[in-house]
Inverse folding.
């Protein structure tokens, strides 16, 4: 059944009522219409000013909360910031009350010929939300600088968001600090997850991973709709809290895959760190000829190893004398290049001196430089 109640409060047209024969009817109608149009323009102007004040107040509240979060409790500025926030919150309540009054007034305003017959298809609005910001044109250096600046300004807030547990808390936090709804936050949380896993803080990593996937879902939703991700916060949390089983299963599956990738990447980084440490140690112990004494020692014949282990120079010289010349030259040259053997410059018989070599690691019994 069609509901006709919305048509019962229509303001009568300017030319539908009867007038006295002595009154200039066309002029009267024009004056009436002009007065109504002026009233509509005034209400429109008041609404625009109200919306501007509302937006500015919300922006100031968000900025003040961010400053409070970044300021030490003992700072002398804390009291002034809290007072400013209290004043802004009072203004916010007044604005919300005024907004409800405006909506009520609009609902009670009768329709008229100008509002009913306003053209509806002269303008097509695809999306009233702000579009996403584009970072494609930034260089790698600019992106890195942007990331560092963002972390410096918001790291405390990022840590707080990563530790939240309830969807409602996360939603409110992101609405209060909407500067966090961006790619930089997702990147920071991913890096934090990897570091936590490397530190073997597995439970904490899994918790932060959940917050990371929430942020990534918000960013993905903004890409699909091509709008600013800040406009997707409420939509995402409403959807995930009231989600169908298939949507929730998809979210949980993505979370599990993410945690698996984090564990794999953390293990890779640990192995990379071990290899880098080993390479640094190897470079630090290289001999004058650029050879690693550990590797050279491992390739020596067992009899030569025993000579170096016992620091027995005469026995080593005797062994060299028995070896084929090419083989002796090969091994001794490698020992010299690795720093295991240092020949005496004034020794005409080619003797050298060896001193006990510091252990390179607990598993290798290599000798020190030979004097």
């Amino acid at each position: 059944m069609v509901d006709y109640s919305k048509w019962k409060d229509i303001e009568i047209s300017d030319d539908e009522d009867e007038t006295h024969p002595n009154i200039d009817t066309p002029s009267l109608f024009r004056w009436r219409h002009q007065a109504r149009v002026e009233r509509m323009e005034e209400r429109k102007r008041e609404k625009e000013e109200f919306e501007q004040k509302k937006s500015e107040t919300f922006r100031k509240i968000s900025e003040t909360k961010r400053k409070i979060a970044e300021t030490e409790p003992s700072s002398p500025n804390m009291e002034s910031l809290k007072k400013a926030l209290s004043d802004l919150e009072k203004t916010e309540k007044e604005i919300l009350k005024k907004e409800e009054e405006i909506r009520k007034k609009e609902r009670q305003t009768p329709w008229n010929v100008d509002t009913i017959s306003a053209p509806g298809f002269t303008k097509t609005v695809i999306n009233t939300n702000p579009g996403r910001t584009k970072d494609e044109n930034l260089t790698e250096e600019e992106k890195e600088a942007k990331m560092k600046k963002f972390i410096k300004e918001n790291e405390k807030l990022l840590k707080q968001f990563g530790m939240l547990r309830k969807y409602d808390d996360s939603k409110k936090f992101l609405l209060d600090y909407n500067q966090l709804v961006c790619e930089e936050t997702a990147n920071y949380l991913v890096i934090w997850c990897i570091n936590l896993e490397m530190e073997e803080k597995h439970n904490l990593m899994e918790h932060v991973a959940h917050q990371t996937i929430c942020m990534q879902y918000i960013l993905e939703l903004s890409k699909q709709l091509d709008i600013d991700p800040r406009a997707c916060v409420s939509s995402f949390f409403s959807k995930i809290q009231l989600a169908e089983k298939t949507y929730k299963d998809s979210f949980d599956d993505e979370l599990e895959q993410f945690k698996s990738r984090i564990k794999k990447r953390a293990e890779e980084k640990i192995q990379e760190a071990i290899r880098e440490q080993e390479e640094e140690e190897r470079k630090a112990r290289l001999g004058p000829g650029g050879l690693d004494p550990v590797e050279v020692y491992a390739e020596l014949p067992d009899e030569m190893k025993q000579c170096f282990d016992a620091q027995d120079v005469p026995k080593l010289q005797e062994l060299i004398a028995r070896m084929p010349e090419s083989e002796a030259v090969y091994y001794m040259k490698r020992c010299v290049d690795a720093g295991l053997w240092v020949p005496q410059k004034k020794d005409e018989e080619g003797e050298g001196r060896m001193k006990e070599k510091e252990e390179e690691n607990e598993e290798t019994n290599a000798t020190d430089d030979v004097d």
In short: The chain has 13 helices and two strands. The first helix runs from residue 25 to 70. The two ends are 108 Å apart (CA to CA).
